[in-house]
Design goal:
23% of the residues lie in helices and 27% in strands. The protein has six helices and twelve strands. α2 links the parallel β1 and β2. The protein is globular. The relative contact order is 0.16.
Length: 275
Amino acid sequence: MKKHLIILLAALALLPAGLWAQNDLKVMSYNIRVGTAKDGTNSWEFRYPASAMMILDQKPDIFGVQEALSFQVRYLEEYCEGYKSVGVGREDGKKKGEFMSIFYNTKKIKVLKWGTFWLSETPEVPSKGWDAACFRSATWALMKDKASGKKFFYVNTHLDHVGWDARRNGLALIVDRIASINPNHYPMVLTGDFNMEADRDELAPLKAKMKDARETAVTTDRRPTYNGWGKAEETIDYIWYSGFSSCTKFEVITKPYMERTFVSDHYPIQATLIF
């Protein structure tokens, strides 16, 4: 028996190095809370180091932020070593307004192409759709895992917090756009703050196309994602996926950082996907 094991290990050692590469992808969604909000001691000026510390501790391969202003994006790029991002401000398609940026670990992930569309009747230009209170957008990127060479798409968004028509139609637009940008059927990730609970009928078209990491992970938890600085409990943040073989873990990150109970009024969520 021992002799057979030694032979097996020797044979495995001769395999190409690429076959040893882990085929997992650690994904995070993080509503960072807009940096100009007047939240008292929870304002960005007091909690920004904790946000960077959380990212550096959790080490996601990719993560999408919601509500980030340009100075918050710059801060994470500067202090989260090894990460870069793509994305634009939703108000003008440049620097104005909140970003739905996609961050990626440059050692593991390569961006092949990316873009932004708006959740409105005119998705190619900055615009407000239907009964939305705000401009809403989605950032997408075609990416490649450097170790395995596998390509995948990533979409990050934030649905409107007021208009139900905007949420329903915006999500339908995302579902349609996901299909149109991915004719090769690469694995797909969708993250974001959807401003709705999982039992809403508006999610039905998405559920028909993608899997909810919270519901399908081998190891998961049921903690709410929106905390309202300790005054609320709602589950409105999601990681969806398709084309991956499995999801091994889903987690709502409630760990305190730098003695701060909350890194945002939303808890970050994280999932590990297997190609």
